[in-house]
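agent> Task received from the user: take the single chain below, predict its 3D structure, and emit structure tokens. No templates, no multimer pairing.
agent> Plan: (1) validate residues, (2) run structure prediction, (3) serialize to tokens, (4) report one or two observations.
agent> Step 1 OK, no nonstandard residues flagged.
tool_call: predict_structure(input=
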Amino acid sequence: MKKGGSSRPTHILYKANLSYAMMEQYLEELTKKGLLIVRKQDEVKIISLTDQGYQYIQNYQKVKSFMDTFGLDEE
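)
tool_result: status=success, residues=75
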């Protein structure tokens, strides 16, 4: 998801290859941590990244790039 972008739960569900129950669990946790905002628009649930969520993704990508560069495993 891009900064300022939004998505519907079904798009996230298919992209992440999750069950509906697992997706709901993750959305709830990420919303509680301030990384996502879930709102309704015309009776449709819309999910958006917060600024904090966007920063988290940027930092994660930097760490992953560092680990890949030096051949470090994520395990």
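agent> Step 4: summary for the user.
The helical segments are 9-16, 20-32, 51-69.
agent> Done.
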